């Protein structure tokens, strides 16, 4: 690994332990075994480092939804939905402890929101796009509100991640498949 990758991995660990708000660039650099000056050679600020953690250290929900959208009929609908919900649950479980502290301060939330290129609704749009592709194939009902379905599916995953984090437990192992099966039956 190079210094940039080491810093991203250390940031993921420190942010998971302390939350975004309390993870300092100094602590992240120390955890990676580098100077804070080197951290700033790779990242303009902590938000840029946080975004790198989201892109590089967590399950890629957007990429999974985009890939399924490009090839909706390649696998069975239930398998696609199960992969999507499993990835979503893993993403939210991994990101929840890191990002929840952003809400500890309105200023921090505003600053973070202003620096994001794409908001947290991006996965919803990608999942809705995938469900639209399945509707076009006739594998889901033509009258399905795909945006609402995407919000229900991802909302269920997000809620389970919240509960698992709050209760300090693993997410229910069968929930992703149950959510996928329920959507498949509705569609």
From TrEMBL:
<dbReference type="Pfam" id="PF14246">
    <property type="entry name" value="TetR_C_7"/>
</dbReference>
<dbReference type="InterPro" id="IPR050109">
    <property type="entry name" value="HTH-type_TetR-like_transc_reg"/>
</dbReference>
<dbReference type="InterPro" id="IPR039536">
    <property type="entry name" value="TetR_C_Proteobacteria"/>
</dbReference>
<feature type="domain" description="HTH tetR-type">
    <location>
        <begin position="1"/>
        <end position="61"/>
    </location>
</feature>
<feature type="DNA-binding region" description="H-T-H motif">
    <location>
        <begin position="24"/>
        <end position="43"/>
    </location>
</feature>
<dbReference type="InterPro" id="IPR009057">
    <property type="entry name" value="Homeodomain-like_sf"/>
</dbReference>
<protein>
    <submittedName>
        <fullName>TetR/AcrR family transcriptional regulator</fullName>
    </submittedName>
</protein>
<dbReference type="InterPro" id="IPR001647">
    <property type="entry name" value="HTH_TetR"/>
</dbReference>
<dbReference type="Pfam" id="PF00440">
    <property type="entry name" value="TetR_N"/>
</dbReference>
<keyword id="KW-0238">DNA-binding</keyword>
């Amino acid at each position: 690994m190079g210094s940039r990758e080491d810093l991203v991995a250390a940031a993921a660990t420190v942010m998971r332990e302390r939350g975004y708000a309390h993870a300092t660039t100094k602590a992240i650099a120390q955890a990676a075994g580098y100077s804070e000056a080197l951290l700033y050679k790779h990242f303009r600020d902590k938000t840029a480092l946080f975004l790198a953690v989201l892109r590089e250290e967590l399950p890629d929900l957007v990429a999974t939804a985009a890939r399924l959208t490009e090839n909706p009929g390649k696998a069975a609908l239930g398998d696609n939905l199960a992969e999507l919900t499993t990835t979503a649950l893993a993403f939210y479980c991994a990101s929840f402890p890191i990002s929840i502290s952003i809400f500890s301060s309105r200023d921090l939330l505003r600053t973070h929101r202003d620096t994001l290129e794409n908001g947290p609704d991006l996965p919803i749009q990608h999942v809705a796009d995938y469900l639209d592709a399945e509707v076009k194939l006739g594998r889901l009902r033509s009258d399905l509100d795909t945006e609402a379905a995407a919000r229900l599916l991802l909302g269920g995953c997000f809620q389970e991640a919240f509960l698992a984090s709050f209760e300090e437990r693993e997410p229910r192992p069968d929930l992703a498949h149950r959510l996928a099966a329920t959507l498949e039956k509705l569609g």
